[in-house]
Each structure stands twice: as C-alpha cells, then as structure tokens.
Amino acid sequence: MLVQRALPTPPSTRGSKSLYLTEAGQQGLTPERKMLFVGQEPANEHVAQGLQVAPGAPIIARRKMFWANSVPVRISTSYFRLDVGENTRLDGEGFVLPTLQAAIEDLGYRFGHAVETLTARPATPYEADLLEIPGEWVVQVLRISYSTEDTPIHALETICAASRHTFSIGQAVGSDQF
Question: Which residues cross the membrane (predicted)?
C-alpha cells in the first residue's frame, strides 16, 4: 500500500474539503478519516518553536487518523496558539467545515507563507500502535503557516508510515527548475 503525498501541495488540493481524501481518491484508493482528539494539550518542543510559544504552553490540538483501503497510513494534528483559536470553531468538536483554512481566514488571518520540515525517525510507541508498524520508521512533516503579518497561525504535523508513502516533489509555480 503506497499513498502519494505531493510537495508542495497543489492549491486546488489544498483548498479542497480534505487534502487527504482528495489526494487518496485521485490515486484510486478508498480513503477514510476519523477525528481522534480535539482539545488543549501542552506544546511539544518542535511545535512550540514553530508557533513561537514556550514548550509546555497550552495549545489547541486537532488530531486525525487516516486510512487507505482500510490500512492505517497517517496521523495528522493541527495545532493553534490559544490567541488564534480559543473559543472559535478551531477548538470545537468534529471536522471544521467547509475547511480549516476558511475558518482561519474567517478569524481575520490571511496566509502569507509556510515552512515545511520533513524528518525521518523511528515511530514512537503511540504512533507504531496506531499505524500498526511496530519497529518501523515514520516521516514527520511539520508545516508552519504564517499570516501576511508573519504570525505563526497554524502548525500541521503529519506522521506518515514511511513504508506506505511516496513523496512526489513538484515545481514551484513559474519555475522551470528544481
């Protein structure tokens, strides 16, 4: 089972109801997703650094699980600073409709740019259990999205079962070189 993850994500896919459901469906897979957790939790070190808060500071987490053809392939967590998302749709139960990006923009933020970091590492026991990959590695993709005012407004951490993903690298718009 291999799921392709496009980098960078094409704008039409990024703006769809669900990036994963759209990508997996385009690949002929049967995608599923389930919300695992919505609430506050302490910021781990790398997310805290990205959101520019102190490690351990409370942040909003929205954790989801994804399957392709009934095989677990990815865990994805959106993180928000409390000053961005507390008491909004971003800390409410269920999936944010029509999209998470639209909800952020409804709060008055406009996306300026993002920085994405990929890290290959052994799965934590929690990740190995959820993804059913004991002893395997994961690819951690951490995307920090900034407003036009350069405020970090969204951290998206995606943990991919490394043996179940390929990463397709596309060219930036208007560029003819990698």
Answer: none
Domain boundaries, the chain: 3-165
Q: Check residue 27 and give its pLDDT.
A: 81
**In the CATH scheme, what is the code of domain 3-165?**
3.40.1410.10
pLDDT < 70 regions, the chain: 1-17, 167-178
User: Rounded CA gap, 141 and 157, in Å?
Assistant: 6
pLDDT (tens digit per residue) in 127-156? 999 999 999 999 999 999 999 999 999 999
Torsion angle, CA of 80/58/142/172, rounded to 10 degrees?
30
Query: 79-88: which pairs have CB atoms within 8 A and are 24 or more residues apart?
Result: 79/43, 79/47, 79/51, 79/154, 79/155, 79/156, 79/157, 80/51, 80/153, 80/154, 80/155, 81/51, 81/52, 81/53, 81/152, 81/153, 82/40, 82/58, 84/109, 84/151, 84/153, 84/154, 85/60, 86/60
pLDDT per position as a tens digit, 113-129:
889 898 999 999 999 99
